Amino acid sequence: MKNFKDIFIIVLILLTAITSLAAVNSLPSKACNFSMYNVAQGGNQESQGRKCNQESVDSRFEALKRWYESTHPSSSTFMVGFYPYGAAFDGVNIWVTNSGSESITKLRASDGTVLGTYAVGFLPRGIAFDGTNIWVANSGGDSVTKLRTSDGVILGTYAVGFYPYGIAFDGVNIWVTNSGSASLTKLRASDGTFLGTYGVGFDPRGVVFDGANIWVANSNSNSVTKLRASTGSVIGTYAVGWMPKWLAFDGTNIWVTNYGSSKITKLRASDGTVLGTYAVGISPYGIAFDGANIWVVNAGSNNVMKMRASDGVVLGTYNVGLNPRGIVFDGTNVWVVNYDSGTITKF
Hints:
Blueprint: H1 2-25, H2 36-40, H3 45-71, E1 76-79, E2 84-89, E3 93-98, E4 103-108, E5 114-119, E6 124-129, E7 133-138, E8 143-148, E9 154-159, E10 164-169, E11 173-178, E12 183-188, E13 194-199, E14 204-209, E15 213-218, E16 223-228, E17 234-239, E18 244-249, E19 253-258, E20 263-268, E21 274-279, E22 284-289, E23 293-298, E24 303-308, E25 314-319, E26 324-329, E27 334-338, E28 343-346
Antiparallel strand pairs: 1-28, 2-3, 3-4, 4-5, 6-7, 7-8, 8-9, 10-11, 11-12, 12-13, 14-15, 15-16, 16-17, 18-19, 19-20, 20-21, 22-23, 23-24, 24-25, 26-27, 27-28
Helix pairs in contact: 1-3
């Protein structure tokens, strides 16, 4: 709000100065429709001029206000745990992993009220909702934790690979990237049963489901791997930018943040064809789709960028907290996790 007020004050000063000069130099302006008849009827040309100029300032102010509100969405910021990282939406609430607190925080999406903080494993990173429960990847514990969304009760902790990072749900199973073992683990969501481990690229981080296949960002291979969700077989591996971190699916295409090259890559999900590469902020990390637009978290720029999914055109850039990482869309609002601030920002 401070920036908003500052901009308004500056603009009002400029507008007042301009319109005051106009009043002095040319009181009977075209917009004010002065006439001898108006004066003869008791009108005062000078007072009418001041009134007209004030109305002009007011109309410009309102136009500026409408423009600002349309290009600068309001935001709220809420405290969570220490070094928050990932975020997920369960249909009602937002869940945030606190990598420095060995916990996750649950906030009511409607107003950001903290509803609870629950212990999980060491260095929690990725987080996903399976339609009933919350799953958390514990990077330092080589495990994932399953919690009941209603009360945060732990339903199970299951071993996966070395240094798990990202996590996704395919409608039936949970998929976990093991960044330290260049693999992907598949677990049955209903009971945590181990279903398989599949090789991918080096240092896999983000993972996303496209409705039929699983996509993995291989941070140290500068590529993404596409696997068939039913069998885990690799369908293809496609080159992207430098140090890809996270992915999003827009219903047709896959979007990848390239942390090392400050760009994002758009690939056609059906065949992996690169459709475009777009410049964003410094060190892009998290990414999300809101139904029409792509939102990119720029960790090195402390902001989030909104881009039109159809053509990658930038629609806006908005400041958030320090070193932002994760992002999630709740159907109405976008939430950005601020790693070094211990907060989450809602747009």
